[in-house]
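Internal ticket - ligand job 223, adenosine-5'-diphosphate:
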Amino acid sequence: MIRLQSVCKLFISGRGHVQALSEISFMAENGQGVILVGRSGSGKTTLLNCIGTLELPDSGAIYYNGTDICRLSLRRRTLFRRQEMGFVFQAGNLLPWLTVAENLQFPLELNGIRGKAQRGRIEELLATFGLTGYEKALPVELSGGESQRIAFARAIAHEPAILLADEPTASLDSSTGKQLVELMVSLCQTKGTTLFIATHDQELLAMADTVITLKDGKMEQRI
Ligand SMILES: Nc1ncnc2c1ncn2[C@@H]1O[C@H](COP(=O)(O)OP(=O)(O)O)[C@@H](O)[C@H]1O
Ligand SMILES: [Mg+2]
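stdout (C-alpha cells):
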C-alpha cells in the first residue's frame, strides 16, 4: 500500500514561485491502477517524481508499506528505486544503440537476475507484450507502439512494487495507447503492482480504479 499525506512541493525559479503540489493526500492499495489527469502544468509529473523518489517533497510524507520513503537515506532510496520502482516516460525510453534484449537486460542486471533466469525472463516479457522474435531488433526498427511496449516490459522486468508512467501514450494513436494501458492495468493487477499513469487521454480514465484530478497543484477530485 502507498499513502501520501499532505505532500507539498514548491519550485523557485526565475519565473518566481510555483506551488507545484499543495497538500496532496490519498492512498492506493497494491495492484490498483491510479490515473492522474489535469492540464499541462497541473503537477502530474512532479507528483510522479515524488512517488518515484526522484524529487523530494518540501513537506508531507509518502508511506510505502508503513515506511516514509522520503526519509530514507540516499543509499536506501537508490536501492528502493532500483528494486521496487519501474518508470515509463512519454517517449525515448530505450537506449538506441542497444538491441531490444539488451534494453530489457538492464533492470535485470541491476537486480542480480542473470544467466538462464535472465534469458527466461526476457523471453517471457517479449511473449507477454506480443513481441517474440524481437530480441535482436534495434529501437529504430520499432513502431511507436512497439517501442512503448518494450518500455513497459523493461519497467516491469524486475517485478517492481510500483510502476510510474508519465504520459506513456502521448506519442501513440488512441487505439494503440488504449490497448497498451489495458494490458498494463491487467498485468499490474495480476502481479499486485501499483500503477500510476499521468495522462491527458480521457479514454483511459475508465480503466483506472482511481482517478485523481490535479489543478494548479491541488487535488480537485478523486473518483
Ligand atoms: N524543476 C522545476 N523548476 C521550476 N518549476 C518547475 C520545475 N518542475 C516543474 N515546475 C513547475 O511546476 C508546475 C507543475 O509542473 P509539472 O509537474 O511538470 O506539471 P504537469 O506534468 O502536469 O504538466 C509547472 O508550473 C512547472 O512549470
Ligand atoms: Mg508532465
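Auto-summary: The first strand starts at residue 2 and ends at 13. Residues 11, 13, 18, 20, 38, 40-46 surround adenosine-5'-diphosphate (ligand 1) (CB under 6 Å).
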